[in-house]
Amino acid sequence: MKFRGKIIDVACLNHFSRVVTTISRLTKTCVLRLTPDHLFFILSGKVSNGGVSMWCELLQVNFFDEYQMDGVSSEFNEICLEVSPENLSRALKTVQSAKSVKIKLTKKHCPCLTITAELPTLSSISRVVTHDVPVDVVPRSLWHEFKEPSVPDFDVSIYLPPLKTMKNVVDRMKNLSNFLVMEANMNGDMNLKIQTDLVSVTTHFRDLGNPPWGGDTSQDGAASQSRDPEDMAEVRVDIRKLQQFLVGQQVNPSRAMCNLVHQNVVHLVLLHEDVSLQYFLPAVA
Amino acid sequence: MNCVIEGSCIKVFGKAVHALSRIGDELWLDPMVKGLALRSVSSALSAYGGFLFSPLFFQQYSLRSLSEQHRQAIKCKVLMKSVLSLFRCLTSIERSVQECHISITTPTDRVMIQFICRHGITKTHNLSFQESEAVEAMFATHLCPNVLKAPARLLGDMVAHFPVFQEEITLSTTPLKVCLRNYQEGGKGHMKMTCTEMSLHPDEFDHFQIGEDSDITFCLKELRGILSFAASHCLPVSVHFGAAGNPVCFSVKDEVVDATVVLATLNNSESRGPPQPETPAPATPRCADAAVLPVGVCEEHERVLSSQGSPEWIHPLPRISGPTRLCEAEECASTTATPASTKICSLLFKALSSEEEDDEDDGCTARLPVLARYSDEDENDEDYPARSSTVRVEF
Predict the structure, then answer these.
(1) Record: fold of A2-145
(2) B1-136 is classed CATH 3.60.9.10
(3) A135 touches chain B (CB under 8 A)
(4) From start to end residue, where is composition biased (Polar residues) (chain A) (predicted)?
């Protein structure tokens, strides 16, 4: 198993660090899956993290100037590592001004992702900073847990309002209640509702627009077409998990949308130029 | 003592308070003829920080008011938290405060810190103080085999690579390079931490003198304060150190400010024992003994015994016999955390200050009762005067 990548471009390094920082805000540990063309940051939905799952896909060539890997075997040319994204993020944050950053899979006292950065100095000799981030190799027997999630058979798909606005609303609501109801319809309307014994608050968003999925993702094409556009699909979610997702976003995505399966799951999809992030929030009773 | 600080110097003063707040919980104010010294010592007695502001730094500086000509200038300590809260937001101080008046007077039993701000606003803060002899760590920098002088930002930039929670770092030096890495105590739990390492070339230093290869481990948190101070004033930082176990001294100097931080280093040759606080100059970070500057081997063995917690070990006392041997005693002695030892510490500190200010010294014996009171109060928190900080805004 070998992995060696090198980033030279400052903008790419910056972008990569920001992605890792976003991931670090969503979860304490995740699985980094390396394939010849992609990097994936994966969190599989488990009871321990409240059923939340995440899938983040990066196209390797958009970040790395050099990228070489040898997977577990020629048949399974992939590497799966369990890593703490916060450690990675911290290591990358400090080397933003580096001339070059190399990331390698190494074995020190334990398997590590070694980040070696060459920092510019006034003299001709470069300063070298090394961070050894400990990782755990995920055995092949567990790889089935980290497969790309399929888009759920959603009832409503809608574009999200500006994430900053959403974050402000959710921040205020978090003080009042632990659970929030997200509802939306195919007419571009979305409501965020909380309800307690004393108070109920609803924030209405209008004219958001609905992505044209065209029925190719929905298995039950006929049913979704016959759906009344005013019909709201709603999901009750843990407000802290939603807030965690919104807080982590540092860059405005080119596309942000949300798929709702009525009383089942919220599927949030953010698309940037070279990164896509999917986040699944299960419904809570 | 009365002094007035004007304009941009207030921010410098505030930065010094910030740097010292990383070291200890109490701030010693030591007005002397050569200037006002701010000092702090960590509770484990493993770190010392001192900022000496020369009279030139102040717009006005007088040790005694006319009514106090017959008394010595009061030396005291105040709670760091109280002073830090006054200087916490340096940017707003820079914007609005024009003058800062500091005075220590006995009639009121308070340290008065007054900010004359814009728009005719005056903020007066009165902090209660506790009279206390000055503390100072004795450190013979000229005896250190290794001396580095780093340009202002270099060390600060280097330690920025370590996470904020990193407790200790190791500085390894050979004549060919300087290497900094984070220090992790043994144990499986720590296997999962990121290891960070960086190396610097001798050319990056203004002055590079390595007499002997060394590997010293010291507390990073306590160091960050002075590095940030140096960086904000673009002053180079001098580092004096020796072998592991000997303290390391970081100092920053310019015409009006002289800042020093002395940190104990881990003594690698000894096995880790239970945490034992010891006196600053030869002190240790939380565990193991620290050897000190040129002392014979027998000294170390004795200190091993002490670190194993023998309360009967009062070896330092015979050394504190006369003024001439005080400095040596300071350097050689180390104690365990018993009431007896705090007396010893205070004896050493007191002895030092009387050593320094012979002109004001009334004689050692006359001072001893003060010491006993100091160490008693140290053990008994209720005796500490209640803090009161009153703010009066006048228009």
Answers:
(1) Proliferating Cell Nuclear Antigen (3.70.10)
(2) no
(3) no
(4) 216-226
